[in-house]
């Protein structure tokens, strides 16, 4: 069966520090990968998606970047965190090459920038 | 571009009572529709999905949803709510991009269950 791992679960970082959140998927090949952010009292906002290694699409301009160095690994990064980067970050995957697929979510990372 | 509206931010229901959470979407073609549930500090779990066919969809935990094209709605229902159903519920619509599924979520409805 497929599983998705996301870490760390919680993170407190000072303003101006770098960020690296990692997500890996097991049990499937060539998944489509996604990073969502959930701000307090708001829905989920799609930040990045990837349909293959090295292929990253950004949905919103921001202080963050994403990379996909391996087929089932997706990394969310920042060189210098802002207070506004605080939030709950969720990694997700869908079956590659399919439209009739739901998204499967990781457990999320609570990021607090202080 | 697609969009989703969940008009109720909070809903309180007595345990054992019925539940209906509203969801309206905007999309130019036949949508893919989803309901997810999120417990505090957790990821999202899929309750049910609609891709095509029967407009009444059954999901896990006794939930169901009905797709009504004429009303652009996909409301979630449960005949008898349990205390463990207290959580946040998100409706989402998927876009028909070739080769991948990109979901747009509503802002969520927080369900409180009173004894």
What would you note in describing this structure?
The complex is a heterodimer of chains A (114) and B (115). With 114 residues, chain A is mostly beta strands. Chain A is built from no helices and eleven strands. In chain A, the strands form two sheets. In chain A, strands 2, 4, 5, 6, 9, 10 and 11 form a seven-stranded mixed beta sheet that branches. The relative contact order of chain A is 0.33. The model of chain A has no long low-confidence stretch (mean pLDDT 92). Chain B has 115 residues and is an all-beta fold. Chain B is globular, with a radius of gyration of 14 Å. The model of chain B has no long low-confidence stretch (mean pLDDT 92). Chain B has strands at 3-5, 10-14, 19-21, 24-26, 32-38, 44-50, 56-58, 64-68, 73-78, 87-94, 103-105, 109-114. Chain B starts with a strand and ends with a strand. Chain B has no helices and twelve strands. In chain B, strands 2, 5, 6, 10, 11 and 12 form a six-stranded mixed beta sheet that branches. A four-stranded antiparallel beta sheet of chain B has the order 3-9-8-7, with no helix packed on it. In chain B, strands 1-4 form a two-stranded antiparallel sheet. Chain A binds chain B through residues 6, 32, 34, 36, 41-44, 46, 49, 51, 90, 92, 94, 96-108, 110, and chain B through 4, 32, 34, 36, 41-46, 49, 51, 90, 94, 96-108.
Shape descriptor of chain A: globular
Largest sheet of chain A: 7 strands, mixed
Work out the helicity level of chain A.
under 10%
What is the C-alpha radius of gyration of chain B, as a whole number of Å? 14 Å
Which structural class matches the secondary elements of chain A? Answer: mainly beta
Query: Which geometry of chain B do the CA atoms define?
Result: globular
What's the number of helices of chain A?
0
The whole-number mean of residue pLDDT values of chain B reads 92
Number of strand elements of chain A: 11
Strand content of chain B: over 45%
Number of helices of chain B: 0
What is the rounded Rg of chain A? 13 Å
Strand content of chain A: over 45%
Distance between the termini of chain A: 38 Å
């Amino acid at each position: 069966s497929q599983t998705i791992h996301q870490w760390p679960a919680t993170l407190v970082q000072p303003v101006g520090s770098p960020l690296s959140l990692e997500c890996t998927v097991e049990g499937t090949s060539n998944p489509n990968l996604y990073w969502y952010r959930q701000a307090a009292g708001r829905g989920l906002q799609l930040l990045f998606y990837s349909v293959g290694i090295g292929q990253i699409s950004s949905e919103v301009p921001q202080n963050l970047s994403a990379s996909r160095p391996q087929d089932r690994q997706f990394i969310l990064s920042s060189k210098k965190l802002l207070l506004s980067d605080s939030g709950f970050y969720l990694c997700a995957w869908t079956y590659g090459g399919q439209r009739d697929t739901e998204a499967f979510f990781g457990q999320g990372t609570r990021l607090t920038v202080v | 571009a697609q969009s989703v509206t969940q008009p109720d931010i909070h809903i309180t229901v007595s345990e054992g009572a019925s539940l209906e959470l509203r969801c309206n979407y905007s999309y130019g073609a036949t949508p893919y529709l989803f309901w997810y549930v999120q417990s505090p500090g957790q990821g999202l779990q899929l309750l049910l999905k609609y891709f095509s066919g029967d407009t009444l969809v059954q999901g896990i935990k006794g939930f169901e949803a009905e797709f009504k094209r004429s009303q652009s709605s996909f409301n979630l229902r449960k005949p008898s709510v349990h205390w463990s159903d207290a959580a946040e519920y998100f409706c989402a619509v998927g876009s028909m991009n070739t080769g991948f599924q990109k979901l747009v979520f509503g802002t969520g409805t927080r369900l409180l269950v009173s004894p």
